[in-house]
């Protein structure tokens, strides 16, 4: 669980790459510059931890490409104290970024192996979500709604209606929609049934699976 000067230097290089790719939110860049991404990966991948690439983790899932994490987080416009729902805890890296931004994070993971690993790991490196839940992300978390923003970190073939319903007015849902290739999509809730939709180009994610595994 070491974080060395070398790791810190590699993180600053990664931040420079993300800036060059168009990420402008300083809070997001600072979070990525601070979080030891190499600790979220198998030690055999240490050389790859600060490249702008996705990598395999347990349960046939991946840790998202840093650019994708930064892009989605920037779209959420997180403010300190915001109540945020994350669908797909995965390695916990995105969770850590949201915690670093001062959000109150509720995160749902449906792969039990990953849920157990990440629930133990995040507090060890100082990141405490409000709640980590083993469950079905398609249903959201109605008992904690409404949320300032919701992020989906897996490719969704369609937009789950419960997630739209659990947003506050002016709340933001950031979700990659599509089967093989996903279109990053932002929904902003303008009224009870009124949502403003914006699309932001193509990304590739592992699929968002229904039910628990």
Automatic annotation (TrEMBL):
Residue positions of the active site: 64
Subcellular location(s) per record: Cytoplasm
Main localization is cytoplasm
Chemical reaction(s) catalysed: [protein]-L-isoaspartate + S-adenosyl-L-methionine = [protein]-L-isoaspartate alpha-methyl ester + S-adenosyl-L-homocysteine
> Is the keyword Transmembrane helix in the record?
no
Q: Which UniProt keywords apply?
A: Cytoplasm, Methyltransferase, S-adenosyl-L-methionine, Transferase
Q: Which Gene3D superfamilies does the record cross-reference, listed alphabetically?
A: Vaccinia Virus protein VP39
Gene Ontology biological-process entries: methylation
**Role, per record:** Catalyzes the methyl esterification of L-isoaspartyl residues in peptides and proteins that result from spontaneous decomposition of normal L-aspartyl and L-asparaginyl residues. It plays a role in the repair and/or degradation of damaged proteins.
Protein name, entry field: Protein-L-isoaspartate O-methyltransferase
Top-down, what is the taxonomic lineage of the species of origin? Bacteria, Pseudomonadati, Bacteroidota, Flavobacteriia, Flavobacteriales
């Amino acid at each position: 669980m070491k974080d060395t000067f070398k790791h810190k230097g590699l993180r600053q290089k990664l931040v420079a790459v993300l800036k060059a790719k168009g990420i402008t939110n300083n809070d997001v860049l600072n979070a990525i510059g601070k979080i030891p991404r190499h600790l979220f990966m198998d030690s055999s991948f240490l050389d790859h931890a600060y490249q702008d690439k996705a990598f395999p983790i347990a349960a046939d899932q991946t840790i998202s490409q840093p650019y994708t994490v930064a892009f989605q987080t920037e779209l959420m416009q997180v403010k300190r104290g915001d109540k945020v729902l994350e669908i797909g805890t995965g390695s916990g890296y995105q969770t850590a970024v949201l915690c670093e931004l001062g959000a109150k994070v509720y995160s749902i993971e449906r792969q039990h192996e990953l849920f157990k690993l990440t629930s133990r790991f995040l507090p060890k490196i100082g990141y405490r979500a409000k709640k980590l839940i083993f469950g079905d992300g398609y249903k959201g978390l109605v008992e904690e709604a409404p949320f300032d923003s919701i992020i989906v970190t897996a490719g969704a073939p369609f937009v789950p209606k419960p997630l739209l319903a659990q947003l506050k007015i002016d709340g933001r849902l950031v979700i990659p929609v599509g089967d093989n290739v996903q279109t990053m999509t932002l929904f902003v809730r303008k009224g009870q049934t009124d949502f403003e939709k914006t699309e932001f180009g193509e990304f590739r994610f592992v699929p968002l699976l229904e039910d628990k595994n």
